Amino acid sequence: MRDPCSSAVRRLAPGSLILLTGVTGYIGSAQAWSLLELGYRIRGVTREAKRAQLLSEKVTAQYGKDALEIVECVEYTIAKYKTLFEGVSGFIHMGMDTTYDGKPREMIKGMVDWTLAILQAAAESPSVKAGLLTSSRVAVFHPEPGQTIHVDASKEIWNDDAVRHAHSSCTSPMKAVWVYMACKVEMERAAWTYIDEHRVHYAFNTTVPDFVLGRFGNPDPSSGSSGRYLQEYYHGDKNGVFVMFNTVPAGYISMDDLTTIQSAALLEPDIDRERIWASAGAYSLAETNVILRRLSQGKEAFEDQDVPPPPIIHAEHEQGRALDLLRRYGRAGGFQSFEDAVTETLEDSPRRVAHNRPDLFKLSGS
Predict the structure, then answer these.
(1) pTM summary value
(2) 345: closest CA among 238, 252, 248?
(3) Domain-located, residue 4
(4) Which of 49, 125, 200, 284 could form a disulfide with 72 if both were Cys (CB 3.0 to 4.6 A apart)?
(5) Residue 162: domain span
């Protein structure tokens, strides 16, 4: 990622330490590389340090042993995060525990408590100048087949239907997905409530990305989420999580675009208290199949499936800030194309494999 802007005008000076939660994950590891390329040091928080081994080795080889510090942490308390914020100038909270034991209320509360612990610990840490929460399009809406949606991503708009479904007694395969959506709703909503009520000293923004595809930051093959789901589909899993997500798709964003937007939102001094819509545009399962047939050169069958008509989503009016941040960081051409994002996902080596935790989406797709 090129940075045409002088480092002198950034909110955080190059060399500053930035805390990232979920650093071994798909977005978290790619975000680490984005900030490393801009000259920052990373303190990465993960629940399983062993999943960071290959990432650490790769970062050390390229940037030296002091560029990335890995901290294993399963304690989501203010006291713990106050120690993690020592010497930290900024943070991005991307962590999401997708292990699910069938208790939605406890899971949602746990994710909200984790978010609030981070925000309060940062508020009690004078060194922190900026923070960002990675939310999700599902915090705003979930489309229905054929539905026309004019996106409103203001801070007053929430996917309350997801919260109701998550707390309902329904037992459909979608229940775990509703729980995930409800977590995203309540994490971001609680964050904005806390920020507004406490008037914290640091700048704060959220991003609202849609389905993320593109390069993998962590060489560990168990890292991947949405990128891994596409790889699984490409290699023969025609009834898995990728199809579940894309029966009624909304939009996509490439990993390079998202991490650039998030780095810029953290570093640009005029960006504060904003909810940034981060979706490049709509796509469909049929469009995906066309690209995959071309990439496989006819070796794989990607037949169009009998799926409902896709929603019609109008979000151009919400894309201004994301495009502005991309331009500031050398991306004058705007968003990366869907085809390029798909291609980058499939070019990654080694092929991604699922880890052994009871993943929400694996439960839903089973």
Answers:
(1) 0.93
(2) 252
(3) no
(4) 49
(5) 13-365
